[in-house]
Amino acid sequence: MDSKKKIATVCLGGCSGCHMSILDIDERILDVAKLADIVKSPIVDGKEFPEGVDIAIVEGSVTSDEHWHEIKLIRKRSKFIVALGDCAVMTNVTGMRNYFPLQEVIDEAYKNSVSNDAEGAEPNDPALLKLHDKVVPLQEVVKVDFIIPGCPPSADTIFYVLFEFLNNRIPNLSEVNKLKYG
Ligand code: SF4
């Protein structure tokens, strides 16, 4: 029987900067690979979020119907959800649009701004019509089991949290600060 755990990483409403920090784990990914398989991630193939995930690491906030359905599915299929980064934890940059009416934001982005895209998204693009009026953090839609704050969180912190979970321990973020600052 395969005793390796299953990890998934997902990007919802974020800038992918948190995923860049995951990549900054560098060669320590080999330590992770001994204990777990990455079964879904922007950096591996596979479209559908699989069943039986042990740890889902989710970047970004919930901004649209698509994100809402995705995080619900992730919750259903994962034992642990880790909210990765300030957008997932408290909306952060993604939530800056909450101060303005949605239509004003769409007009500003797609009508009034100068763009180099010959065929960019149109203001009536169906994807835009499914945007929610307000951006919300993950925990307003599903139960979140652990948060990693930061914009982006450091690779050291991400690795520490992952490694603790993979060894069946609950991470204690103050331990990372002790390692850094003594
Ligand atoms: S927390 Fe920062 S780095 Fe991560 S997705 Fe949001 S803006 Fe990007």
Description:
It is built from eight helices and seven strands. The chain has 182 residues and is an alpha/beta fold. The protein has one domain: Rossmann fold, CATH 3.40.50. The strands form two sheets. Strands 2-1-3-5-7 form a five-stranded parallel beta sheet. It has a two-stranded antiparallel sheet with strand order 4-6. Bound molecules: iron/sulfur cluster. Residues 14-15, 17-18, 59-60, 85-87, 92-93, 151-152 line the site of iron/sulfur cluster.
Task: Kindly summarize this structure in a few lines.
The protein has helices at 17-23, 29-35, 65-77, 86-90, 102-112, 126-129, 155-166, 173-181, and strands at residues 5-11, 36-40, 53-59, 62-64, 78-84, 131-136, 146-148. By secondary structure, the chain is an alpha/beta fold. The structure holds iron/sulfur cluster.
Number of strands: 7
| Number of helical elements | 8
Class inferred from helices and paired strands: alpha/beta
Q: Fraction of residues in helices?
A: 25-40%
CATH class value: Alpha Beta
Proportion of residues in β-strands: 15-25%
Mean of the pLDDT scores? 90
Oligomer: single chain
Looking at CATH, the homologous superfamily is NADH:ubiquinone oxidoreductase-like, 20kDa subunit
Strand order of the largest sheet: 2-1-3-5-7
Number of domains: 1
Q: Low-confidence spans: pLDDT under 50, at least 5 residues?
A: none
| C-alpha termini separation | 41 Å
CATH architecture: 3-Layer(aba) Sandwich
Using the coordinates shown, work out and report the CATH topology: Rossmann fold
Q: Which molecules are bound in this entry?
A: iron/sulfur cluster
Q: In this structure, how is the largest beta sheet organized?
A: 5 strands, parallel
**What series of H and E elements makes up the topology?**
EHHEEEHEHHHEEHH
